[in-house]
Amino acid sequence: MTDLSTPTGPIDLAPFIKAYDVRGLVGSQLTVGVVRALGAAFADEVGTPGGEIIVGHDMRDSSPGFAEAFSAGVRDRGVDVVAIGLCSTDETYYASGHLGLPAAMFTASHNPATYNGIKFSRAGALGISFDTGLRAIRDRATRFLAEGIVTAEELGGARELDVLADYAAYLRGLIDLSGIRPLRVVVDTGNGMGGLTVPAVLGGAAGLPELPIEVIPLYFELDGTFPNHEANPLDPANIVDLQRAVLEHGADLGLAFDGDADRCFVVDEKGQGVTPSAIAAIVALRAIERAKALDPDGEVVVLHNLITSRVVPETIVGAGAIPVRTQVGHSLIKDEMAATGAVFGGEHSAHYYFKEFWGADNGMLAAMYVLAELGQQGDPMSGISARFTPYALSGEINSTVTDIPGAYSRIVEEFVGMAEFDELDGLTVTGIVQRDAPFWWFNVRPSNTEPLLRLNVEAGSNDEMMRIRDFVLGLIRG
């Protein structure tokens, strides 16, 4: 293990402490000294001497050492560590919610092997964003790096805890899959943490009863170098193997998890990707049904971020619930889940949030909802998803833009009088259309980390979507 002493001198942490988490290059940005300072800073933000903080990590080569360094920083400040070891991100949320403790997870999610990072939670799996604690953590860590960590009179202790079996049992208790029709499912975990959690939750690895699900594994071996493909199912190139395997095995469904297994993507029996918006609508219906069964007269709220398909709020309203439109970003949505008491929240990025999971996101639980829907009816996945994909979506298109205000001005100038504008998150432009014309809307948002504008377009017809998409791209790119 590398020396855990904290370096001295000014270090700029701003480039890799993002809006919702820490994400940086191993060695040049994230070092054991930086990580130890962040551990001490996190302990000061959320802990009290004698209290506990959960620390978990993924399968990246640097993660165990960083988890050790971070734990040393926590203990420096007199706070105890609960080390849950190798785990998925949603396992840390389970531990945080179940035990009522703050947590830190070492992962860079879908980023390449040269990266690592930290996802923080307050007690009860509540998110921490830049404005709700991450800025303060950064500033404290910066001081510790410059001046050294002042150790507490009594250092914190440490204990180990394996939560995988309890996590799997908890999810099984939420969604009963024992009575569904037999399903054949190909699962691609991309050498990420789904290789640990899928056998425990959907198989018998955690000692739970077998389910009527035949899991055909792809890349279950935990390997932080990602030898087969990046663990980023948002990139179509990374689900090609899954699509091929679904067809080769005659599977009912394909599932792809990202590196830390908190996001889940779905491929139908024809090998076609199912949009995360369709999955959000499917899960929303089932979540609303569960909530109404428990409290028939209660108000049911469901969140959706502003770039999910129009079908999502339409589905929510049709089921007798209240849709609430949110900004993009997991910490922001966790805050909204808590503030509104929402039973479910869906994002375009395949993050799905559940009240029954402390308002946190859980890719495995979303997959179980989809398996329950598919397994309780005779229609194939393609038929189910078609009902929730009535409109044309562009997907997210990134453009390098150095003058973002200038691009916004060009867009507003062209569409003034033809559309309505709002700035909940970036700029959303909704067309004022004639009675028989197809609807359209688009959103442009700047990246938090790069000089990029992200464009999403939806319309009532594919021709209209392409027309708006191409016109707006011309404005963005000047």
From TrEMBL:
Q: Fetch the Pfam families from UniProt.
A: PGM_PMM_I, PGM_PMM_II, PGM_PMM_III, PGM_PMM_IV
Q: Which GO terms describe its molecular function?
A: intramolecular phosphotransferase activity; metal ion binding
The biological process GO terms on file are: carbohydrate metabolic process
Q: Where is the Alpha-D-phosphohexomutase C-terminal domain?
A: 396-473
Q: Does the keyword tRNA-binding apply?
A: no
**Gene3D superfamilies given in the database record:** Alpha-D-Glucose-1,6-Bisphosphate, subunit A, domain 3, Alpha-D-phosphohexomutase, C-terminal domain
Q: Which cofactor does it need?
A: Mg(2+)
Which PANTHER family does this chain map to? PHOSPHOMANNOMUTASE
Protein family membership: Belongs to the phosphohexose mutase family.
Protein name (database record):
Phosphomannomutase/phosphoglucomutase
Species per Swiss-Prot/TrEMBL record: Marisediminicola antarctica
